[in-house]
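Progress report, Aim 2. The chain analyzed during this reporting quarter is listed below.
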Amino acid sequence: MAEVYERARPEYPVEAMDWLSDRLHLGPERVVVDVAVPTGARVVAVEPLAEMRAVLARAVPEAEALEGTAEELPLEDGVADAVTAASAFHWFEPARALPEIARVLRPGGRLAIVFNTRDPEDELQRELTELLRPHGIPTSWMRDFDSGAVLRKSMVFAPPQYAEFRHEQRFDADGLVERVASISYVALLEGEERAAFLEQVRELGQRQEASFSFPYVTQIWISRAR
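Predicted structure tokens for the chain:
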């Protein structure tokens, strides 16, 4: 599953990473915890799952991968210039994770939260949402999960800056099936239910052109530790 996740999940658009890097002041001699942004900064990735750490080691060999969670970071106080959470913040316990993230940041350090959300204005995405709904799979939680509101309520981070960027992946029917199968909630489906659902996804892909767009909105929040 880790290999499928790495292969099928979307990357982030260059413009979004440039915007992020500029506001985090990333570059040589800076230390980033979590995400490999191509800036020359030293990257320390914290990941609880061994299989995902193995994938990371192959994909980004220059990154240092450590076992841990956002609630219990295996790092000393004040070691990071920035902490980034890419498509992961919804799994955190904010009451525990935000003070822990603030602890490892240097004075003036910043937290960046990044999500690739499926574009709700796209017809293919709307059809996929209708396929997901009967299985009890959340279909709009990324948009409904307001990371900015969580940060604004926090006592340890300042109100965030926000930006969003549009981009896409391109798939054939097989690629669409692999992409949807990489969704964590879909991975939890079992047996005949999962097989029948993915067959519906394949039929959806087969109704499209040979190479079709799967569009996203990349959302970024950046907040300074108080």
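The domain at 2-118+140-169+215-224 is CATH 3.40.50.150 (Rossmann fold). The CA atoms of residues 115 and 141 lie 11 Å apart. These observations will guide the mutagenesis work planned for the next reporting period.
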